[in-house]
């Protein structure tokens, strides 16, 4: 390293050469920074989708096409974006996707009747609706109408209870399942390791903590009232950020040897129109062993898991009915 600086002190250098040398030096210094292994979501999603395809071909050849019913209330852009991604993934492997858009003015009993119809329809294997629902609808009640066998994103209390009781049969919610799939695909050891989950929402943080626990990690769940977050993160082997705060987790909170899974998807305050995670990626990348990028990480895997759950539900139903 010192040799490189030595040339800069050469009095015979002209200013242009000096600038070029400085640039080369900066580039080589950057290259020498330890760079974390990038845990891309694409190969993980592709491997799940490959498996989905072969399982789907089998079901379709048995005239049992796996079918997902998707309900969207209103026209929230995020929901429409996710719905399009679901349709695309389903189409790719041959899962039938029936989408229904409902007006925000729909009454709870009307929505309940539509859901009940889907529950009773034996040709539908998975049911999913976007949340949050408008405040005039009792979401907990509507979620409870979906039986665990068709609850492909773990919306109901019954499915969540099964998850917490570590009972087989119910599906884990897709995003936490996607995190576990990333860890499995990249062979990150979990059993016996310290894992910290930042965030305790019912959608991501809490169910993920249960999945990590079931995989024998020692789990800490942190939230907005947690003290010494930096210390909590520093001690962990696996740090999962699911907070929804752009770049909350700073480089100084992290250390070599760690795996960082960034679930956050936030508008980037520094780069208008772009997305960023809950982790300061640039800083973290030079500190830790492995990290997921945002975008391009966990988000890519979630919909592949939803597809897989529908196929699994259809296979279970086929096995049950012979
Ligand atoms: P959420 O319901 O808003 O929950 C956020 C959690 O983070 C809460 O538990 C909150 O703590 C905690 N929190 C907030 N500020 C904090 C802080 N300064 N320090 C520590 N903890 C803090 O969000 P969510 O639905 O779980 O989503 C989290 C992130 O994941 C969002 O960026 C979302 O866009 C993203 N997401 C990604 C996917 C995907 O497929 N990649 C799917 C779903 C969500 P309290 O409980 O104390 O309020």
Q: N-to-C SSE series?
A: HHEHEHEHEHHHEHEHEEEEHEH
Poorly predicted runs: 1-5
Q: Spatial order of the strands in the main sheet? A: 1-11-8-7-5-6
Number of strands: 11
Largest sheet: 6 strands, parallel
Average pLDDT for all residues: 93
Please report which band the strand proportion falls in: under 5%, 5-15%, 15-25%, 25-35%, 35-45% or over 45%: 5-15%
Bound compounds, please? Answer: NADP nicotinamide-adenine-dinucleotide phosphate
User: Based on the structure, what is the oligomeric state of the protein chains?
Assistant: single chain
Q: Globular, elongated, flat, extended or rod-shaped: what is the shape?
A: elongated
Distance between the amino and carboxyl termini = 70 Å
Describe the model.
The protein is of the alpha/beta class and 322 residues long. It is built from 12 helices and 11 strands. Strands 1-11-8-7-5-6 form a 6-stranded parallel sheet, sandwiched between helices. Strands 3-2-4 form a 3-stranded parallel sheet, with helices on both faces. It has a two-stranded antiparallel sheet with strand order 9-10. Helix 1 packs antiparallel against helix 2 and helix 8 packs across helix 9. The longest helix has 23 residues, at 299-321. The relative contact order is 0.15. Residues 1-5 have low confidence and may be disordered. It binds NADP nicotinamide-adenine-dinucleotide phosphate (NAP). NADP nicotinamide-adenine-dinucleotide phosphate is lined by residues 175, 198-201, 203-205, 222-226, 229, 242-245, 248, 263-266, 298-299, 302. NADP nicotinamide-adenine-dinucleotide phosphate binds next to helix 12.
């Amino acid at each position: 390293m010192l040799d490189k600086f030595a040339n800069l002190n050469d009095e015979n250098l002209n200013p242009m050469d000096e600038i070029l040398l400085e640039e080369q030096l900066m580039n080589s210094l950057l290259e020498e920074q330890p760079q974390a292994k990038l845990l891309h979501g694409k190969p993980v999603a592709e491997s799940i989708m490959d498996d989905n395809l072969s399982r789907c071909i089998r079901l379709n050849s048995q005239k049992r096409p796996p079918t997902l019913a998707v309900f969207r209330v209103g026209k929230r852009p995020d929901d429409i974006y996710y719905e399009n991604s679901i349709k695309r993934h389903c189409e790719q492997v041959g899962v039938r996707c029936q989408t229904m858009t409902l007006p925000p003015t729909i009454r709870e009993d009307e929505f309940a009747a539509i859901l009940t119809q889907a529950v009773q329809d034996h040709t539908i294997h998975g049911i999913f609706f976007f949340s949050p629902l408008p405040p005039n609808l009792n979401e907990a009640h509507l979620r409870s109408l979906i039986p665990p066998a068709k609850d492909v994103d773990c919306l109901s209390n019954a499915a969540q209870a099964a998850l917490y009781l570590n009972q087989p049969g119910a599906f884990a919610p897709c995003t936490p399942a996607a995190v576990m799939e990333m860890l499995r695909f990249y062979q990150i050891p979990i059993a016996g390791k310290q894992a910290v989950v930042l965030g305790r929402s019912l959608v991501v943080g809490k169910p993920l903590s249960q999945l990590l626990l079931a995989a024998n990690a020692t789990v800490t769940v942190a939230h907005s009232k947690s003290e010494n977050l930096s210390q909590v993160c520093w001690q962990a082997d696996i740090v999962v950020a699911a907070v929804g705060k752009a770049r909350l987790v700073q480089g100084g909170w992290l250390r070599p040897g760690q795996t960082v899974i960034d679930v956050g998807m936030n508008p980037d305050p520094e780069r208008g129109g772009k997305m960023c995670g809950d982790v300061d990626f640039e800083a973290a990348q030079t500190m830790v062993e492995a990290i997921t990028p945002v975008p391009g990480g966990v988000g890519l895997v979630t919909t592949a898991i939803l597809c897989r759950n529908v196929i699994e539900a259809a296979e279970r139903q086929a096995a049950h009915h012979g």
